[in-house]
Design goal:
With about 210 residues, the protein is mostly helical. It has one domain. Helices cover about 70% and strands about 0% of the residues. The protein is built from nine helices and no strands.
């Protein structure tokens, strides 16, 4: 069983790093022109990490690491923002908005070992709520405060943006499937010893 635990630990960390890399890569893909501004992997990745980041933890240290791992790729997103676009006052709202998304997902306390159907609907619903929360915080509160644009004008411009932003929910199922595949480890199951099996065992022992 020790080898199974070790393998689960390694695969758990692989899942966390893979999803975390997707969050940071989303910024770079947008910069390279492969993604639209409102079609992104940051919020879906943070929600998946926050919702189901404890599939296996052999120690208290590993438990804390897996539960709070989402903060590491969030730090990577902040660094990419600063290096590629420089300082901007809107980051006060976008960075805190990403943190809100992760914190909202953290309340789920799900596991990758849960049924896929349960994971999908809970995580997708959470991601939808996180996207709406993020857009309200950044587009309807942050943008008018920083630019002086009226709330009505911000709302009219934000509605189509949020509808397109919700298309990012399509990234949630692949991320969850990746987690299910990475932590799939065969576990030996005790099989009842039938009379024929007992005879075969005794024959081999001779």
């Amino acid at each position: 069983m020790e080898s199974i635990y070790r393998k689960l630990t390694h695969r758990t960390y692989a899942f966390l790093f893979a999803v975390g890399t997707c969050a940071v890569a989303s910024k770079l893909l947008y910069l390279a022109g492969f993604l639209l501004p409102n079609l992104e992997l940051v919020v879906p990745s943070l929600v998946v990490l926050g919702s189901a980041s404890l599939p296996f933890a052999p120690s208290q240290r590993a438990t804390r690491f897996t539960r709070y791992f989402g903060l590491l790729p969030l730090g990577g997103v902040l660094i990419v923002d600063l290096l590629c676009w420089g300082p901007n006052r809107i980051y006060l709202f976008t960075w805190s908005g990403f943190l809100f998304c992760w914190a909202l997902a953290y309340l789920n306390r799900l596991s990758v070992f849960d049924r896929l159907s349960h994971l999908l609907w809970r995580t997708t619903l959470t991601a939808a709520a996180a996207i709406i929360l993020f857009d309200v915080w950044t587009g309807l509160i942050g943008f008018p405060l920083l630019t002086g644009v009226s709330f009505t004008a911000a709302l009219l411009g934000q509605i189509p943006f949020t509808l397109r932003h919700l298309l990012s929910l399509g990234f949630v199922p692949p991320l969850l499937l990746l987690g299910k595949l990475l932590v799939r480890v065969p576990v030996p199951v005790a099989v009842p010893l039938t009379q024929r099996t007992a005879q075969e065992v005794r024959a081999r022992e001779r």
